[in-house]
Write a structure and sequence with these properties.
This protein is of the alpha/beta class and 262 residues long. It has one domain: Nitrilase/N-carbamoyl-D-aminoacid amidohydrolase. Helices cover 21% and strands 29% of the residues. It contains six helices and 16 strands. A hairpin with a 2-residue loop joins strand 6 and strand 7. Helix 1 packs parallel to helix 3. The two termini are 29 Å apart. 45% of the residues are buried. The chain binds acetamide. The site of acetamide has 7 residues, from loops.
Length: 262
């Protein structure tokens, strides 16, 4: 299957402009099965305060941005993952949608909030879902979730063959961690990071696709809006064997350290 990451610098606070930007970039894609966009791709990241974030938030069922993603998925007959600023009642979530050709397939809400996000968003309350799609089971993580290997393991144990990871990374560590998460969980990871700056924050680009043997198979520039692509075989994620006598999942000593309630 064909995977495409869109690395871009969203225009802060302007959903329409970001839709146009993403439309232009994705027009260059000829054939794809999955597009992954960064965290908060429709609004940008650095909200002045919660009031500003509320003004820029959208309900999943009534969202100009998700409507655009739905058109994008239908037009390309593909799935699209993107971060967005989700409002539900009076609460905000830093969320990621999995959009399919038929509409919303699933939503994940960021569990591990980073820095000032704690003043704006609620921690995710939808757990760690894995969504069954025509291309395989897909899980999602958002940016700082990279710090918590437990979450990635749970998605893998639930059968995810690929974890889509919209990000707005500012620390320099994540891109060196995800190849190992791919290796130990034997699955693909697509980290779609943004570029550019907002106030004191510089986002680190270098979006990355990693495979079940821990290889980085595609890598973006640090400061360029671009499409990063890879042709991948998701069937490789089914093989958890490391040697003929070792299986990454079956050899776990859950009697010693538990199994996350799974
Ligand atoms: C982050 O979680 N946006 C760094």
């Amino acid at each position: 299957m064909h995977l495409s990451i869109i690395q871009l610098s969203p225009v802060f606070g302007n959903i329409e402009k970001n839709i146009e930007k993403i439309r232009k970039l994705t027009e260059k894609i000829k054939k794809t099965d999955l597009i992954v966009l960064p965290e908060l791709a429709s609004t940008g990241y650095k909200f002045k305060d919660r009031d500003e974030a509320i003004l820029l938030s959208e309900r999943a069922q009534n969202s100009r941005y998700l409507e655009f993603l739905s058109e994008l998925a239908a037009k390309n007959n593909c799935y699209v993952v993107s971060g967005f600023n989700e409002r539900e009642k009076d609460k905000l979530y830093n969320s990621s949608v999995l959009m399919g050709p038929e509409g919303i397939t699933g939503i994940y809400r960021k569990l591990h909030l980073f820095w000032d996000e704690k003043k704006i968003f609620e921690p995710g309350n939808l757990g760690l879902p894995v969504f069954d799609t025509e291309i395989g089971k897909i899980g999602m993580q958002i940016c700082f979730d990279w710090m918590f290997p437990e979450a990635w393991r749970v998605l893998a144990l639930k059968g995810a063959v690929l974890i889509a990871h919209p990000a707005n990374l500012v620390l320099p560590y994540c891109q060196s961690v995800t190849p190992s998460y791919s290796l130990v969980n034997r699955l693909f990871i697509a980290t779609a990071n943004r570029i550019g700056t907002e106030e004191e924050l510089t986002f680190t680009g270098n979006s990355v696709i990693t495979n079940p043997i821990g290889q980085t198979i595609a890598y973006g520039h640090v400061d360029k809006e671009e499409i990063i692509t890879a042709e991948i075989d998701l069937r490789l994620s089914a093989n958890k064997k490391i040697t003929p006598e070792n299986d990454a999942f079956e050899d776990r000593r859950t009697d010693v350290y538990g199994n996350f309630g799974i």
